[in-house]
Specification:
single chain, 6-stranded mixed β-sheet, 10 helices, about 40% helix, globular
Length: about 250
């Protein structure tokens, strides 16, 4: 149900359950967590992408699994819902959204660092329509991303927003034509992997904490991150490549 493939330093995680609208069941949750484990452990994989097979990225939790008493199994110990929404990690992940990302599917996208979407995409948290709660991060990540007023509209009505509106509101980084989300995500990855990986990871750590930590904590994190980067071989390679007027060759060490 989860396919994980490494392509030129990119770990592509694909939910392959199109017959069930890529709904998250226990196998999907454990599979995503295992794929992130593999990505984090591989020094040659610098960035990840999450995508879904078929016309729906993910419809969220598998209601049949919930009805069967498997709600807890839709979460993993370290990753939370879908094996990703509460997962602490080092490497950035981009969501490639080429269709509806609803309920838990939207929360999976929100848990990623960036979102690339086609005009086929819609985003929503329709849980209130079924007397449920968006408990996998959507209730606080969405307001932080698109602002409290519009997020409240999405959350309380349960109505989705279009890819165009999501792009205007800053939820989506890149908006592309239908069928191009994954290719556009890979192109964005190429822009990231042109940079020094450890500098990228340390920068991500501080930026990720920017909306939830105080300035003093963020200053400490930035100083510690710089010190970590300064200990790497790439720290010398960057200035050297600039002086020699060539592209840097990053080692990630």
């Amino acid at each position: 149900m989860i396919d994980y493939a490494v392509q030129e330093g990119v770990g592509v995680i694909t939910i392959r359950r199109p017959e069930a609208r890529n709904a998250v069941n226990p196998e999907v949750a454990s599979g995503i967590e295992a794929a992130i484990d593999q990505m984090e452990a591989d020094p040659l994989t610098w960035v990840g992408i999450v995508a879904g097979e078929g016309p729906v990225v993910s419809a969220g939790a598998d209601l049949k699994a919930i009805a069967a008493g498997q709600a807890d199994a839709l979460q993993t110990k370290r990753g939370g819902f879908g094996g990703i929404t509460r997962r602490e990690r080092t490497k950035p992940i981009i969501a490639a959204v080429d269709g509806p990302a609803l309920a838990g599917g939207c929360e999976i996208a929100l848990a990623c660092d960036m979102i690339v979407a086609s005009r086929n995409a819609v985003f929503g948290l329709p849980e209130v329509k079924r007397s449920l709660l968006a408990a996998a991060g959507g209730l606080f990540r969405l307001p932080r991303t698109i602002g409290p007023k519009v997020a409240m509209e999405v959350i309380l009505t349960g109505d989705p927003i279009s890819a165009d509106r999501a792009y205007t509101l800053g939820l989506v980084n890149l908006l592309v034509e239908p069928g191009e989300a994954l290719n556009a995500a890979k192109a964005l990855v190429a822009r990231i992997t042109a940079n020094a990986p450890i500098a990228v990871w340390e920068s991500r750590k501080v930026a990720d904490a920017a909306l939830t930590s105080d300035d003093e904590t963020l200053w400490r994190m930035a100083v510690a991150g710089f010190a970590r980067v300064a200990q790497t071989e790439d720290f010398a390679e960057g200035p050297r490549a600039f002086i020699e007027k060539r592209a840097p060759v990053w080692k990630g060490v």
